[in-house]
Amino acid sequence: MEVHSLVYPHQITKEKQQNTVAAIGFFDGVHLGHQAVIQQAIRIAKQSDRKAAVITFDPHPSVVLQNKQDTVRYITPIEEKIKHVESLGVDYLYIIRFDKKLAMLSPQAFIEHFIEEINITHIVAGFDFTFGHKGSGNMDNIHNLINDETEVTTVGRLDLNNKKISSTRIRKVLGQGEMEEAERLLGRPYSIAGEVIHGDKRGRTIGYPTANIKIEDYYFLPRIGVYAVQIMVGNDIYYGMANLGYNPTFSDDRENAKLEVNIFNFDANIYGENVVVYWKKYIRNEEKFSSVDELIDKIREDEVKSREFFSIND
């Protein structure tokens, strides 16, 4: 998959571009609803012997439109989005820089610059996709903006349990610790990637050594608490349990949540390595204990519950 980063105005010329079918949207999460749009574009491209592309945006429009100073947290930060889009089998990914100039672009100018000049001859988007200044372009009026050579396919709403699959819904269930529901909506477990860093090393003194994982600010975090997780180290997947929180038994810091994973049956040195944590099951909320022994007893219970969830005994 070729990845192209675009800003307005870009310097791409239509004559040098392949005839392409493109799925377009922000696609945070690349959830089942997004996948339906992208897979429809791929099907149309294969049937008509054209290339398949995804057009997306970065950063989130709210950064520009709402003048947000705080970091926006994503279900799939841009690097994760690239990986998930590539796994679906598209030929090109166009990442359009969302800035003030783009936000002021009229729907007609957007179509001319980012559709026609890239030689997109078939647009595929969800029913609620909007574009152009103040979102005034949409899937109802897009036919008035495109030329005669461009086709449009609108993909309808995709539901799970009679509710729309959406990034907003996924953020809500993640915030409630409903990891199985998040997995059903995403079509895969929710994951966070990060580097293993040195921590306080308390875990090893109580019989539960942990991999401390650096969490970048751009990740959307699930509910604070203890989880049954899987973790990818290199190309291997291991079972474990994770604590996302503030270690209240030892610290009064409530500003920065930390992620620690006790990996079952694992004793390798992985400092400095990048790992991926797959969140599978919420076990309990984080607690402050009156003694280290009380904490250890609770961790043992967490381990039993995590192993039972994965149906592993040793």
UniProtKB/TrEMBL annotation:
<comment type="pathway">
    <text>Cofactor biosynthesis; FMN biosynthesis; FMN from riboflavin (ATP route): step 1/1.</text>
</comment>
<keyword id="KW-0511">Multifunctional enzyme</keyword>
<dbReference type="InterPro" id="IPR023468">
    <property type="entry name" value="Riboflavin_kinase"/>
</dbReference>
<dbReference type="Pfam" id="PF06574">
    <property type="entry name" value="FAD_syn"/>
</dbReference>
<dbReference type="Pfam" id="PF01687">
    <property type="entry name" value="Flavokinase"/>
</dbReference>
<keyword id="KW-0067">ATP-binding</keyword>
<protein>
    <recommendedName>
        <fullName>Riboflavin biosynthesis protein</fullName>
        <ecNumber>2.7.1.26</ecNumber>
        <ecNumber>2.7.7.2</ecNumber>
    </recommendedName>
</protein>
<keyword id="KW-0288">FMN</keyword>
<comment type="function">
    <text>Catalyzes the phosphorylation of riboflavin to FMN followed by the adenylation of FMN to FAD.</text>
</comment>
<dbReference type="GO" id="GO:0003919">
    <property type="term" value="F:FMN adenylyltransferase activity"/>
</dbReference>
<dbReference type="GO" id="GO:0009398">
    <property type="term" value="P:FMN biosynthetic process"/>
</dbReference>
<keyword id="KW-0285">Flavoprotein</keyword>
<dbReference type="InterPro" id="IPR014729">
    <property type="entry name" value="Rossmann-like_a/b/a_fold"/>
</dbReference>
<dbReference type="InterPro" id="IPR015865">
    <property type="entry name" value="Riboflavin_kinase_bac/euk"/>
</dbReference>
<keyword id="KW-0418">Kinase</keyword>
<dbReference type="InterPro" id="IPR002606">
    <property type="entry name" value="Riboflavin_kinase_bac"/>
</dbReference>
<comment type="similarity">
    <text>Belongs to the ribF family.</text>
</comment>
<dbReference type="GO" id="GO:0009231">
    <property type="term" value="P:riboflavin biosynthetic process"/>
</dbReference>
<keyword id="KW-0547">Nucleotide-binding</keyword>
<keyword id="KW-0808">Transferase</keyword>
<dbReference type="InterPro" id="IPR023465">
    <property type="entry name" value="Riboflavin_kinase_dom_sf"/>
</dbReference>
<keyword id="KW-0548">Nucleotidyltransferase</keyword>
<dbReference type="GO" id="GO:0006747">
    <property type="term" value="P:FAD biosynthetic process"/>
</dbReference>
<comment type="pathway">
    <text>Cofactor biosynthesis; FAD biosynthesis; FAD from FMN: step 1/1.</text>
</comment>
<dbReference type="GO" id="GO:0008531">
    <property type="term" value="F:riboflavin kinase activity"/>
</dbReference>
<dbReference type="GO" id="GO:0005524">
    <property type="term" value="F:ATP binding"/>
</dbReference>
<keyword id="KW-0274">FAD</keyword>
<feature type="domain" description="Riboflavin kinase">
    <location>
        <begin position="185"/>
        <end position="311"/>
    </location>
</feature>
<dbReference type="InterPro" id="IPR015864">
    <property type="entry name" value="FAD_synthase"/>
</dbReference>
